[in-house]
């Protein structure tokens, strides 16, 4: 069933059809001033009018936020309850959604209702948990669409009339394609200019041995940016989808909260390039230079490698870098490789990118991947069995964006099909391999992987030898035995030369503590787990 939405309800200024001023006389043909929809903001709106306005606001929000955020926080959860004076009262279904909207989306809602009604309203949100009321509200929306179409009646289409279709009878294939599109929207890189994403914070950044160094330095920069801190220039690099951009937004949000007087510029290298080209075309390169040289306190450029082979832009960036660095401003860059490995970059630019702290972010290990999945599932209000998390994390190993995207696809499918997901469905939907025949890891195979990585004979690792290199390898073997196999301390001690359980506890605690600061040890563990 398809129904057409009567935008003329809002767009028409003619007195012949004025649903928001029902008391106006039909025979009053005096020309009226061109105005927005609401002629009397204090007028009480009918339920049908509130529903129609709510649809307009939702349509505006749908174009202003990402698809997954719209479906999570607004679709079938966000309703206009009443308009009075200069206040617009909305309801949502949970306290969590209320808090997210109040913290992140009030400007979008305010802009949406101003765009719809032509005046500024103060927004208030309340939680309504009466499911029957919400269900009837949704039915009222659909019924009102029918009634309003009948009121409008047939007639010649004008330029003001814009219509869309509401399809309530999707086939199963169409529903699967809809779920797939949400996945693609998530994993597709964003090449547009960046606005701070309030949902990307340090609190929801999952820390593991492969990114603890990057997280710690980003925290330090956020607390004390610029010359007052330890790292006035920071360079983060990793393969795509491992959290570099998340950390950029987390730093930006933290600096904005703690140092509101500082001017932050967070931009992609591609947008930086476009901005410079446009300034040259419009003959206002001076304004471009003034912006970056005089107005900015914190400059963050994502994917700086995109400037390769752009000599003119590199030259401009070189002077901007020097000026901001000399003034003690904060500089943060991200890339898919370290400065020395970027082709097509002038040596003077490459050397400056490497002036500050250069930090590598590795691929997350299995434990971190499962933690990321569980966090994302919580955000999506998606329930899955533990074996499903393990299945996904075992197959998707190198890209956090793909990990999260898999859950978005599952959530969309579960929502559209109204089913609880079982492990076989998950395997089919995501095209995951059956790993039942995967290599079985034992204490012996794990110890041999440690031996091979550190190039120390297994006999030495299991012996009473206490050389530093041997002790480190032994401690790593014990730590991984507890972490991966969850073997008892007594069994591990017996395997590694007949030691007691206190030796194993000491080894695990020591490695756990070192992982917080020792990036090399983190890389060792990551390499061993990958080999396993």
Care to describe what's here?
The protein is α/β, with parallel strands linked by helices. It folds into 4 domains: 8-152, DnaA, N-terminal domain (GMP Synthetase, Chain A, domain 3), CATH 3.30.300.180; 212-360, P-loop containing nucleotide triphosphate hydrolases (Rossmann fold, 3-Layer(aba) Sandwich), CATH 3.40.50.300; 369-430, Helicase, Ruva Protein, domain 3; 443-531, DnaA protein, C-terminal DNA-binding domain (Chromosomal Replication Initiator Protein Dnaa, Chain: A, Orthogonal Bundle), CATH 1.10.1750.10. 53% of the residues lie in helices and 8% in strands. It is built from 23 helices and 8 strands. The protein has helices at residues 8-11, 47-64, 67-73, 95-104, 106-117, 131-152, 172-187, 212-223, 244-258, 269-281, 285-295, 311-326, 347-353, 366-380, 386-395, 400-417, 423-430, 443-454, 458-462, 468-485, 489-495, 501-514, 519-531; strands at residues 79-84, 87-92, 122-127, 233-237, 264-268, 298-302, 330-335, 357-360. The strands form 2 sheets. The chain has a 5-stranded parallel β-sheet with strand order 5-6-7-4-8, sandwiched between helices. A 3-stranded mixed β-sheet has the order 1-2-3. Helix 2 packs across helix 5, helix 18 (443-454) crosses helix 23 (519-531) and helix 20 (468-485) packs across helix 22. The longest helix has 22 residues, at 131-152. Residues 10-43, 131-168 and 182-193 have low confidence and may be disordered.
Text of the CATH class of the largest domain: Alpha Beta
Q: Pairing-aware structural class of the strands and helices?
A: alpha/beta
Radius of gyration: 29 Å
**Total domains:** 4
Compute the average pLDDT: 78
Distance between the termini: 54 Å
Distinct helical segment count = 23
Oligomer: single chain
Main beta-sheet annotation? 5 strands, parallel
The CATH architecture of the largest domain can be given as: 3-Layer(aba) Sandwich
The coarse silhouette is globular
Task: Quote the beta fraction.
Answer: 5-15%
Low-confidence stretches: 10-43, 131-168, 182-193
Record field, number of beta strands: 8
